[in-house]
Amino acid sequence: MAGPLASFALVVGLLTLTPGLDTALILRTAVLGPRRQAWGVVLGVQTGTLIWGTASAAGISVLLTASRLAYETLRWAGVCYLLWMGVQMLRRRPQPDHPADEDSAERPGGWWAGWRRGTLTNLLNPKVGVFYIAVLPPFIPAGAPHLAAGVLLASVHVAEGLLWSAALIAFARTLRTRLRRPSVRRLLDRATGVAVLGFGAKLALGD
Questions:
Q1: What gap in Å lies between CA 167 and CA 195, rounded to an integer?
Q2: Quick one: CA dihedral 123, 73, 85, 132, positive or negative?
Q3: pLDDT at res. 169
Q4: Which residues contact residue 8 at a Cβ distance below 8 angstroms, ignoring those fewer than 6 apart?
Q5: C-alpha atoms less than 13 angstroms from C-alpha of 2 in its C-beta half-sphere
Q6: Which residue among 29, 69, 120, 133 is the one 20 to 30 A from 174 at the CA level?
Q7: In angstroms, how far is CA 85 from the centroid of its own chain?
Q8: Distance between CA 61 and CA 49 in Å, rounded?
Q9: Please, which residues have CB within 8 angstroms of residue 104's CB and are 6 or more apart in sequence?
Q10: What secondary structure letter does DSSP report for 95?
Q11: 37 and 105 in contact (C-beta within 8 Å)?
Q12: C-alpha angle 9/13/18, rounded to 5°?
């Protein structure tokens, strides 16, 4: 597995470094929200990645390519979710900072809220499933336990995602003190909302 692991790590490493919806959500949450929520988004995204990888290794996600109905249902669920999330960001008013209880899991918008957002964003994107269907099988050596090898490869993707996300959060938190003005925070929220709407529209058009 050493050779396939190294090759797969390179492929998904380049994918991880490519800016996308996950990057936008992590940066926005790290700048505007509590640290726990930002890590919730990260772990939610990686939860979705691991689920997609496991489903692909088990052959379940082949349904997305075999069944047009399954693919379209998931795609439009993702479109609706992204459009709803983008509109919510555009309408949201900047919240005041709460340094004393920033990392409290009980606060609205804490860890669970971030985890749900990250997980749903990843799982409702059928293109992630199609990516794993196309990319994962060629890296599983002949004779290797298919499910175990697939989970191992997906875990490499998760590990790289966690490392890159940690760097993104650290970078965003250094900017946090410079972005406390409500007007700047509102602009960042609106910009992320527009980006999310753009991703939703792109998914709707099937590009």
A1: 21
A2: positive
A3: 93
A4: 135, 136, 139, 153, 156, 157
A5: 0
A6: 120
A7: 14
A8: 12
A9: 34, 36, 110
A10: P
A11: no
A12: 160
Amino acid type, 7: S
Tokens of 206: 């099937």
| The two three-digit tokens of residue 64, written as one number | 């997305």
The DSSP string of 154-179 is: HHHHHHHHHHHHHHHHHHHHHHHGGG
Count of C-beta atoms within a 10 Å radius of residue 190:
15
pLDDT at residue 163 in the model:
96
pLDDT tens, residue order, the chain (207 aa): 677 788 888 888 888 888 788 888 898 888 888 889 999 999 999 999 999 888 888 776 566 556 677 667 767 776 787 787 778 777 766 555 444 444 443 344 588 989 998 999 888 877 777 777 777 777 877 777 878 888 898 999 999 999 999 999 998 888 777 766 666 667 776 777 787 777 778 767 765
- Going by C-beta distance under 8 Å and a sequence separation of 6 or more, which residues neighbour residue 82? 21, 121, 124, 196, 197, 199, 200, 203
Helix (H) or strand (E) holding 101: none
Most distant CA atoms of the chain, gap in Å: 58
Q: Give residue for tokens 């996300």.
A: 165
Phi-psi region of 59 (alpha: psi -120 to 50; beta: other; left: phi over 0): left
Residues 125 and 92: their CA atoms lie apart, in Å, by: 24
Contact 27/89 with Cβ under 8 angstroms?
no
Residue 63 has, within 13 A of its CA and on its CB side, a CA count of: 10
